[in-house]
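Hi,

Apologies if this is the wrong queue. I'm a grad student, and the batch job for Sulfatase from Polaribacter atrinae produced an output file that my downstream script rejects. I'm not sure whether the problem is my script or the file. Here is the sequence I used:
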Amino acid sequence: MNFNLKVLIITVLMSSVIFSSCDKKKSTTDKKVNKQNEVLTQDVKAPEGMVWVAGKTFLMGAKDEDKYAMPREKPAHKVKVDGFFIDVHEVTNKQFRKFVNATKYVTVAERPIDWDEIKKDLPAGTVKPADSILQPGSLIFNKHAKGVVSMDNYGQWWKWQIGANWKQPEGPGSSIEGQDNYPVVHIAQEDALAYCKWSNRRLPTEAEWESAAQGKFEDNIFTWGNKAEDLNANANTWQGKFPTENVSEDGFEYISPVGSYPANNIGLYDMAGNVWEMTSDLFNVNYYQTLNPSAVLTNPIGADKSYTPSNPYQVEYVMKGGSFLCHASYCASFRISAKMGMEPNSGSDHIGFRTVATKEMLAK
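Support response: The file is valid. Your script probably expects a header line. Output copied below for reference.
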């Protein structure tokens, strides 16, 4: 999965896109946290809207019976992760707006594009395009994609939209009015880290994210258990034929408000589907193969370097959980072990984030 802003501009200039997507009642998320998560933890009270994930040892990576598993998710290996707090749901528009209002922060998707920086990734001699093209924006899913010829051509269902950002998720004329409880999107990693610094939080490691998704489980495929047929009842994913037909049987054609689906067994919402979630780990498709399968890793922080064969020189980070675009016929990334790579300097309309905090962070 490739989300480089430079690549997106190259897409506009060179006409090639490198990208991959891969009767429910709305819940009041902050009021349904398990009592276990509301108690004092070594004199540190659980922050409002966060859940305590107890320390445990569990099986990380793809399980043997997971028919959708990809090579980068194997082999499964045991990890031990200390306890931590994690957001009950993805950071919402309302929460991000509070941060922006307090700091006057401007996201990457809203900033002017630097041609001198962009041209470093273009063939020598490329002529600077008109200023009308070099405008801030982001990638959005093309809701009108028709006649898909090859599933390898991701440009058939993605498009660069000038003016798309967290406040205008579909571009000029769109808004987030009435969507306070939706996940904030069009967020680059830099934006998420700025929010974390302001809120005294950080992004989860991949191991922490999987520990939270497992909840009280230790080796399940999905956040709700091991039954793939329970997907539609537990996660906002694509229903129909991807990417041209979305029957939206669950009432949500695309993104949904946080907490629209049942929580997992420790009170966390949307750990599968809706929007992808960032982690702090570097994305390396070979990382798990380098590990000692008999060892138990303690609080792993991922690979030392990023590596993706299709984009070997670009740094990417792991994102987890899948999105409203995930479908069993294509990426099936609604599984706990599933992962894709995200370039840190751009976003899209199906990527968000949630934060974590440790007792030590909160005690400061």
